[in-house]
Amino acid sequence: MLSRNIGAIDRSLRLVIGGALVAMVFVGPRTPWGWIGVVPILASVTTWCPLYQLLGIRTCGRTAGPCKR
């Protein structure tokens, strides 16, 4: 099981930025590069970031156990 490593603020920012990037596919420059926004959206939904895992970063607080939702 993957341990959560994304906090509430980080999660919200990822959701907003990811949504803005995906919106670029339909509105604005209409570039397919906007689909890269799916990555931060998925990280936000799952509350787990593989890059954070590799670097040992946790933005969900200083608790010793798994982060709470």
Layout of SSEs?
Layout: H1 8-26, H2 38-46, H3 50-55
Question: How would you explain this protein's 3D organization?
Answer:
- This protein is 49% helix and 0% strand.
- It has 69 residues and is mainly alpha-helical.
- The chain has a domain at 8-55.
- The chain has three helices and no strands.
- The mean pLDDT is 90.
- Helix 1 packs antiparallel against helix 2.
Brief digest:
It contains three helices and no strands. The chain has 69 residues and is mainly alpha-helical.
What's the main sheet like?
Answer: none
What value does the average pLDDT take?
90
The H-and-E topology, N to C, reads as HHH
User: What Rg do the Cα atoms give?
Assistant: 14 Å
Characteristics:
mainly alpha, 3 helices, elongated, 69 residues
